[in-house]
Amino acid sequence: MALDLEEYLHTAFRDKLRLQAVPAWDAATLLPSTRLLLKRQEVAEVERALQSQREEFRQRMERLEQRRQQLGQRKDQLQDVVLKFDAFLKASAARQERALRRADEERARVAGQGAEAARLHRELTGLLQRRERLAQRLQSLRGFGDYLRGVLARMGQFQDVPAMLARFGALAGARAALAQQAEARQKQLAQGWARLRQYQEEASSELLRTNDELAQLRAHLEATRHDVLQEESHWAHVQSTAAQKTLLLGQIKLAVLNLFQLATAWLKVPGDVALEDTEAQLDTVLLCMQDLAAICAELRPRQPGLSLPRLPVATRMRPMRHRGARVPPSQE
C-alpha cells in the first residue's frame, strides 16, 4: 500500500510540475533583465504549483488520516459487532439448548401426562366398577337398613341410625380393645407360666445339684467320722498304753527307790540323791552291787572253771562319786 501511494504522488507531482511551454523568445533579442523576470515568473509559477501540490497532498493526507481513523473506528465497531455477534450466537445456542431441553421436558411431561391420564382413566374405571359394586351391595343391604330403622323405632334411645351405629361401633371398639387387653394378659400370663416353669426347672436342677453336693458332703462327713473314730480308738489305745507304761515306769521307779534305800541302808551309803532322780538312784545301786561283787571276789577263793557273773554297766557315762561311798579301782 505504501508503494502505491508513493507511485501516485510521484505521478501527481510530475504532472503538476510540468511547465507550460514558454513561447520561444529570441535570446539575443531579450534583455538580461527580461530574461531574469521570465525566470522569476517561471520560478513563481513552479512555487505556486508546488504550494498547490503541497496543499493538495496535505489535504489528501488529512483525508487519509481521517479515513484511517474511520477505518480504526470501523474496525473497533466491527470487533464490537463480532463480539456482540458471538455473544448473540452463544446466547442463541444457549436459548436453543434451553428450548430443546424444554421441548424434551415438555415431551416427557406430555408423555407423563399421557401415562398419568391413562392411570387416572384406569382409576376412574376401577372407581366406576367399585361404584357399581357398592350400588349393588347397597341394593342388597337395603333390607338391613329397614331392619335398623325398625330397631331404632323400637328402642327409642337414639335419634337416628348413625347415632345408634356410632354407639354400637364404640361398644364394638371397646369390646375389641378389651379382647386385645385380654389377649395381651393371656400372653403375659403364658410368659409368666413359662418363666415359672423355667424357674422351677432351674430350682430343680439347683436342688438336684445341692442334693448331690449334700450327699457328697455327707459321705465325706461319714468318712471323716470313721477316721475320727479310728483316731480316737488309736488315741485311746495310745493313752492306755501310755498309762500302762506310766504305771510300769512308776513301779520301776518304786523298785529302784526300794533297792536304793535298801542298798544305802544296808551298806550305810549316804543317800543324798533326789527322790525323782531314778537314774542317779539306779547308778548308786549298780555301784553298790559292783562293790559287793568285788568284795565277794576278794573273799572267795578262785576255783578253776568258775567265773563271776558280769554286772551291767552304769547308765551314766561317768561314774558318780557319792560322799562316803567307796568306788572300786576298776571304776576309777
TrEMBL record:
Q: Which part of the chain is the DUF4200 domain?
A: 37-152
- Pfam families in UniProt: DUF4200
Asked if the record carries the keyword Coiled coil, the reply is yes
Q: One GO CC annotation, please?
A: cytoskeleton
Parts of the chain that traverse the membrane: none
List the coiled-coil residues: 36-81, 200-227
User: Which keywords has UniProt assigned to this entry?
Assistant: Coiled coil
Q: What is this protein called?
A: CC42M protein
Source organism of this protein record = Balaeniceps rex (Shoebill)
Whichever gene encodes this chain, its name is Cc42m
